[in-house]
Write a structure and sequence with these properties.
mainly alpha, Arc Repressor Mutant, subunit A, 3 strands, 70% helix
């Protein structure tokens, strides 16, 4: 990045932060993550782990690369997150038919963990729906899907 002596004043920075989709989506994601993490705390799962287990159940057994594409996580982060779930006995990672492919599936323990976590997830989902409004939440989820498509050029 070229060096410059110019600075950006606070008012300009405020306008940028108010208008920046990335900043505001990440801020909203952190707040929602905190809500779901709090609800899931009794299960020992974090919201990121819960959603990954859900994705594996939906798509599994699934190649790790495809799973990373589905949840839009880089492969390094995916590998790190799956290692934790594997260590806890919630997922199984095995070599696929193609030696280059690692396939991920839920274990029986992982399926039980999802079942145990579901009421806690529902609690967080209901709380957000009540606070935000059911119709608004449904519209938001649709808008977020379209946002992902737009960002990925789909």
């Amino acid at each position: 990045m070229p060096s410059t002596d110019e600075t950006i004043d606070s008012a300009t920075c405020r306008r940028i932060s108010d208008a920046c989709a990335c900043f505001n989506l990440r801020k909203a994601a952190r707040a929602v993550t905190q809500l779901y993490d709090q609800a899931l705390r009794p299960t020992g799962l974090r919201s990121t782990q819960f959603t990954l287990l859900i994705a594996i159940q939906v798509h599994g057994p699934v190649p790790m690369t495809r799973l990373a594409d589905e949840v839009i996580i880089d492969r390094t982060t995916m590998t790190r997150n799956l290692a934790i779930l594997d260590k806890e006995g919630l997922v199984s990672i095995r070599q696929g038919d193609d030696q280059r492919v690692r396939e991920v599936s839920l274990t029986a323990r992982g399926r039980r963990a999802l079942a145990d976590a579901r009421p806690h997830w529902e609690q967080a989902q209901d709380m957000l729906s009540q606070r935000f409004g059911k119709g608004r939440l449904e519209r938001l989820l649709g808008d977020l899907t379209e946002t992902v498509d737009a960002a990925r050029g789909s």
